Give the backbone structure.
Amino acid sequence: MLEALLGYPAMLHRFIPHPVAWAGGALSGLEWRWNRTQFSARYRRALGVAALLLVAGSAALAGGLLEWWAGHSAWRGVVIVLLATTGLAQRSLYSHVAAVGRPLRGHNLAAARQAVGQIVGRDVAALSSSGVAGAALESLAESFNDGVVAPAFWLLGFGLPGLFAYKAVNTADSLIGHREPRWREFGWASARLDDALNLIPARLAGALLVLAGRGGWRVMLRDAKKHDSPNAGWPEAAMAGALRIRLGGAVYYDGVAHTRPWFGDGAAPDAADIERGLSLYVVACGFLWAGLALLGLAWRL
């Protein structure tokens, strides 16, 4: 709840970059040094495993040391809460998606394309208004898992070490866990481990979205497995079902078309659906908080 209220203040970021930026910088440096085309595929895969273990292990160690340090303070709970907010992204996700909806409502398609280009990797220059809205909603749904549910899940299970390690693995997947020839071998371990860590959280995220939307179970259960990813389809199909719209379809990356399945049976999304999606997201976050509170009460009993 504190992270949803405060996020990671921009003023603080100027002096202390967000921890995800540290992990990203370390991974980028290792990729530049170790992912050499003259190395064999097997050797690059082994180096990718080593890079992942080094960065994720360092993140877990940092979390453990901070938790140990906080345990010697009278303000232990407060310190751990403040540190844990750095692993969640509720506020920033809401802000980035809302920044797409505002110009789209004002019929400023160029500005909406620019805003959505900050949160998706696909080509945005030729997106229609419905394409922009769909991209924003798909990012909102998938990032609800990656930036909210999964970090909370691993924090709950393993404290700050689990939270920081998950964020490092998820950052590795976003940077190097791609299928293109450059990253296919070096990022293999990052992609596989990220898939494993998100298996349960992604399904929880989908369930929270359809609960928040009071419907969409049928679409989620029917369409989630159409996605190439074992996890991303669950929150995306849930978003489509809960809003009674259609998401997915072909997209372009670096000028190359990629065929994707459709999720949902409704109409193409528009600017109003971004607002509805953000409202759905807020309610789903509230359900997550309530669920964690109930777990805490049950644990005390």
